[in-house]
Amino acid sequence: MQYSIFGSILTIGAMLGAITGGRIADFLGRKGAMRLSSVICSAGWLAIYLAKEPMVLYLGRFLAGYSIGVISYVVPMFVGEISPNKLRGTLSSTNQLSIVFGLLAVYVIGAFAGWRILALLGVIPCGLLFLGLFFIPESPRWLAMNGQQEEFEAALRKLRGKDADISYERSTIQEYLTILETLPKVTFINLFDRSHYRAVIISIGLMAFQQFVGINGIIFYSTEIFKSAGFNPSLGTILFGVLQVGVTAGGALLIDRAGRRPLLMMSASGLLLGNLIIAFSFLCKAYSVALTLVPNLAFVGVLVYIASFSIGMGAGPWLIMSEVFPLHVKGLGGSLVTLMNWFGSWVISYTFNFLMLWSSHGTFFLYAFVCLLAMIFIYEMIPETKGRRLEEIHASLNS
Questions:
Q1: Residue 247 CB-half CA count within 13 A
Q2: pLDDT 10s digits, 38-85
Q3: What is d(CA 293, CA 181) in angstroms, rounded to the nearest whole number?
Q4: Which pLDDT value is given to residue 242?
Q5: pLDDT value of position 130
Q6: Is the model more confident about 218 or about 138?
Q7: Can you tell me the distance from the alpha carbon of 24 to that of 31, in angstroms, rounded to the nearest whole number?
Q8: How far apart are CA 207 and CA 298, in angstroms?
Q9: Distance, CA of 252 to CA of 244 (rounded, Å)
Q10: 220 pLDDT band (50/70/90 cuts)?
Q11: Average pLDDT of the segment spanning 192-213
Q12: How distant, in Å, are the alpha carbons of 41, 91, 122, 219, 252 from that of 125?
C-alpha cells in the first residue's frame, strides 16, 4: 500500500498543479509559471533526499508532482506559442524527447546509485531551468494579450531573427487579439459552448486515451514487469529508455512531415499490438506454456509498446492541445485537459499493482481494448493541424 501511495501521490500533486497551472501561466506569464515550478520541484526533491519517515517522502513526492502538473501544461503551450508554423510540431515534440531523455538518465544512474542520490540529482535540472529562463524571451502572444506592445515586438523579433519580416505574423496576432477582446470572460461553463466544445472533446479525449492505454503503469512499474516475466530488470529498463529516446527523436522529425493524424493512428495501433504481446507472455506463464519464451516475449512486447507510444501518443496529445485552444481559453481549457491527463495517470499508477494481482494477462488485455477505442476516436475526431496557423485552426474548429 505504501509503495502504491508513493508511486501515485505524485499524480495527485500534478492534478492540483494542473488545476492551478493555467491561471498561474496567465497571471505570472509562461516564464513566471516555469520559474515557480522549478523552485517547488527543487523543494520536493530535497524533501525526498532528507526524508527520515514515509510522510516526508510523500510530501516531497507531492511537491514534485505539483510542479510537474504546472510545467506539463505550460511548456507545450509556451513552445506552441513561440514556434513558426512549419516547425511547431517538431519543436513541440522536443518536450517529449526531453522527458524520455530524463527517464533514460534516471534508469542508467539508478542502476548504480541509491535513491537519495537520485533525488539530490533531481535538483540539477530544476536549477538549470530557473537560470535558463533569464536568457529566453517571454511568449509574444502572452505579452500582446497583456498589452505589453513594445515587449511583444521585441520578443517576436528575437525569436524570428533580427532580419526576418515579422509584419504579417505581428498583424495576424494583433487582429486575433482584437477579436478576443470583444468576447466575454471565459468561465468553466463557457468551455462547453458551441465555439469551444470541439476543442475540449478533442483534447480531453486524447489525454484520456494517452493515459488509459496504460503508459504510466508500464513506466512506473517497468522494473516489476521485467521481474515478473523473468527478465533482467536493470538491463530491461535501460534498453527501454534508449528505445524511447530514439523513437521519440524520430517522431519529432516526422510530425511536421507525416502529420498528426497518421502518427497518432500508427501509435495507437502499435500500442494495441504491444499490449497483446505482453498479455500473451503472462498468459503463457500462467498456464506454464512455452516458459522459456516468456521473458523474451514480455521484453519484446514492452519495447513494441514504448516505441509505439513514443512516436505519437507521447507528444501528440500535448501538441494538439496547444494548437486547438484559442488564447483567451487556453488557461482554463489547458488546466482542465492537464487535470484529465494527471487524473488518468493517477488511476493507472494506483490501480496497476492491484490489477496485476487480479490477473497479469487480463490487465494488458484490458489496456489493449482501450487502444482499440483510441484508434476509433482518432479516426473520427482528430483534425489535421500540420502547417496551419493557430488562428486558422481555431477558426476551422468553429466553422
A1: 24
A2: 999 999 999 999 999 999 999 999 999 999 999 988 998 899 889 887
A3: 63
A4: 85
A5: 96
A6: 138
A7: 10
A8: 26
A9: 12
A10: low
A11: 88
A12: 10, 20, 6, 20, 22
Reading the block at residue 205, the C-alpha cell is 479525449
Judge whether residue 250 has pLDDT over 80. Answer: yes
Residue bearing cell 505550460? 74
| Dist. CA 307–CA 311, nearest whole Å | 6
d(CA 311, CA 329): 28
Instruction: Give pLDDT, residue 325.
Output: 83
Q: Report the alpha-carbon distance of residue 93 to residue 21 in Å, rounded.
A: 20
Task: Report phi then psi at 76, rounded to 5.
Answer: -60, -40
Instruction: Report the alpha-carbon distance of residue 211 to residue 218 in Å, rounded.
Output: 11
Closest by Cα among 127, 83, 76, 150 to 341: 76
pTM: 0.75
pLDDT digits (tens, 9 = 90+) for 287-343: 888 888 888 888 888 889 988 998 889 888 988 887 888 777 877 888 888 888 888
